[in-house]
Amino acid sequence: METKYGFTLFSIEEFEQWIKNLNVARTILFVQEHHTYSPSYVHFNGANHLDLQKRMKNFHVNERGWNDIGQHFTTFPDGKIATGRSLENSPACISYRNSNAICIENLGNFDAGGDAMKDLQKNTIVRMTAALCKKFNVPVDVNHVVYHHWFDLGTGSRINPKSTKSCPGTAFFGGNTEAAAISGFYPLVKAAISGASSGQPLPSMIKYGMVNADTLNIRSTPNAQATKLGTASMGAILRIYEMKEGWYRISNTKQEWVNGNYVKDVFRAKVNADILNIRTGPDATYNKIGTLEKGAEVFILKEENGWSQISLEEKWVASKYLDRQ
Fold it and tell me: What would the 3-class secondary structure string for 172-221 be?
């Protein structure tokens, strides 16, 4: 394990142990698979993992104007994994699809005719995806373990996207289509979960809540004077397992508590229409800014006149096309 520039470099074995014990307040529903395209294998010299990670962060911050590196993790040709942005923050990887997601960038150009993925990296991508799905109870299917190629670059729409990237590569585990993921990637991930069925039922919980403070301290007991374990960010969706004297426990295995005064109830829902328009306000007269496909999952933050707000930004959909979960 190595730390440099604020990033940590793991072997896959180290990563599996680290993620197993990591406390993450934010609710994770999706894992995104990407490739960097550039930098690619030609830029990797076997020892410059974190230098490349720093260069990617500099590009994302200084050229793209983001506040951090876009991805949560990067895998490398030798099977190592570098951390990126905090798991408490949404990634900047698929437009309109970053909420409740984890973004994995796999260093290389995995289009046909590009880099031939090394076995060590292959093994890491499979085991890492499996570890994340197991940790966060993410089903291994086309609605939850997703490829960038499936979404429109401008709108995030999955319905007949007009402009896409090939990412994670036309040769990524046999291809970048849904059919290729089903036949070439998902079976490997499911096998790596070691007998635990993907998409297990959610742990017993009371409700979902959204952080409505800039930062919310996580305490070891339901008391403002208790040891601070970490923080959750504005907009983070929390799972709530116990309520006690105005405090919420957000883990079903550990004593992790937040002040309920700074958490707003929200509701998980699934789209029941073939295509659902996203608008800038709670009425059909507002501008259309994107679409969701049938089965897409969202959180309802607010309801008004038959419309549901699904983002801290002004993104609204007709409530009749949502089924609460």
Answer: HHHCCCHHHHHHHHHHHHHHHCCCCCCCCCCCCCCEEEEECCCEEEEECC
